[in-house]
Write a structure and sequence with these properties.
Elements: E1 3-8, E2 11-15, H1 22-26, E3 31-38, H2 42-52, H3 56-63, E4 70-73, E5 78-88, E6 93-103, E7 107-112, H4 119-127, H5 137-170, H6 177-198, H7 201-208, H8 221-284, H9 296-319
Parallel strand pairs: 3-7
Antiparallel strand pairs: 1-2, 1-3, 4-5, 5-6, 6-7
Helix pairs in contact: 2-3, 4-5, 5-6, 5-8, 6-8, 7-8, 8-9
Keywords: Cell membrane, Membrane, Transmembrane, Transmembrane helix, Transport
InterPro entries: CorA_cytoplasmic_dom, CorA_TM1_TM2, MgTranspt_CorA/ZnTranspt_ZntB
Protein name: Magnesium transporter
Length: about 325
């Protein structure tokens, strides 16, 4: 089902009216119309595309998935693609939800690929800033971008917390290295995905603020500047976290290498200790007479020699922290 809204002179006048009435409302120069569609086909968009004179390439991009975040300019309108994101803290995987938008002089048409994009949160932002509604389409686009960029910021903040928890796991006494590797790879994959949707938003927001597009007026310009600032912070934060995950992975490998060296030193030390009694018993095992041959005191002499030499090696290795 399509959702609609009508603002007239900055006041919300109608909601959820039939799509067929859009053209009648757009005849009024003081009216601003919002139309939202979820999962439409090209045939579903055909009527509104003809009414608003939307470019065929833009309509195709709105229907097809996995578009790059961008802002394309056409003769009668602009076309925007963006992604809201949500991090699953259980798996460390990032979900992204695509939205396309047609920006005309008096209308904003949003096209969601599925229900994962929470359009109700966008509407709540519009309702919470009714004093800005006089900005027309620029006001609607700001609410849309504000939700998208805030989802990026929330995701990168949660990723930061998850990476801090991963740091604690790396230095834990009984660290589960397999789990740490799995978690770090998932977080790195999520950061790569987040970077792909965050980085292009700098160009998108910056282009929207250009005066020649006539979308952002002087009243809305500070609010777009705030969104742009959030985009820059999210981008820089994402880049730093990618480096941090790499550092954590390298630190884990270094710790594993150090632990392996410690184990090898201990194994070598014990092998040396065991080699001493082996040598003594092997020597006394020769088929030749030796001091104490066939005597009880000879047995005790060899036993004491084994214990003394092995104990001496243990003490020496212990002082060198090899054991």
């Amino acid at each position: 089902m399509a959702r609609t809204r009508l603002y007239r002179d900055g006041v919300l006048e109608a909601e959820n009216f039939p799509v067929a009435d859009v053209s009648d409302h757009l005849a009024d120069t003081g009216a601003t119309v919002w139309l939202d569609m979820c999962g439409p086909t090209e045939e579903d968009l055909a009527s509104i595309a003809e009414e608003l004179n939307l470019h065929r390439l833009a309509v195709e991009d709105a229907v097809h998935e996995h578009q790059r975040p961008k802002l394309d300019r056409y003769q009668t309108h602009a076309f925007l693609t963006a992604y809201a994101v949500r991090l699953d803290t259980t798996t460390g995987m990032l979900g992204k939800f695509e939205v396309a938008a047609f920006l005309t002089e008096g209308a904003l048409v949003t096209v969601r690929k599925d229900e994962g994009f929470a359009i109700d949160e966008v509407v709540a932002r519009w309702d919470g800033a009714q004093d800005l509604a006089k900005g027309g389409v620029g006001f609607l686009v700001h609410g849309l971008l504000d939700y998208v960029v805030d989802s990026h910021f929330d995701a990168v903040q949660t990723l930061d917390e998850e990476i801090e928890a991963l740091e604690d796991l790396v230095f834990a006494d009984n660290a589960d290295h397999k789990e740490i590797q799995r978690r770090s790879l998932h977080l790195r994959k999520s950061l790569v995905t987040l970077r792909r949707v965050v980085l292009p938003m700098r160009e998108v927001v910056n282009t929207l603020m250009r005066r020649d597009l006539h979308i952002v007026d002087d009243m809305l310009m500070p609010y777009y500047q705030d969104v742009y600032d959030h985009v820059l912070r999210a981008t820089e934060w994402t880049e730093s976290l990618r480096d941090l995950v790499t550092t954590i992975r390298e630190t884990q490998l270094s710790l594993q290498g150090n632990r392996l060296n410690t184990v090898m030193k201990k194994v070598t030390s014990w092998a040396a200790i065991i080699a001493v009694p082996t040598a003594v018993t092997g020597f006394y095992g020769q088929n030749v007479p030796y001091p104490g041959f066939d005597k009880l005191w000879g047995f005790w002499a060899s036993t004491i020699a084994i214990v003394a030499l092995g104990g001496g090696l243990y003490v020496a290795f212990r002082r060198r922290d090899w054991l």
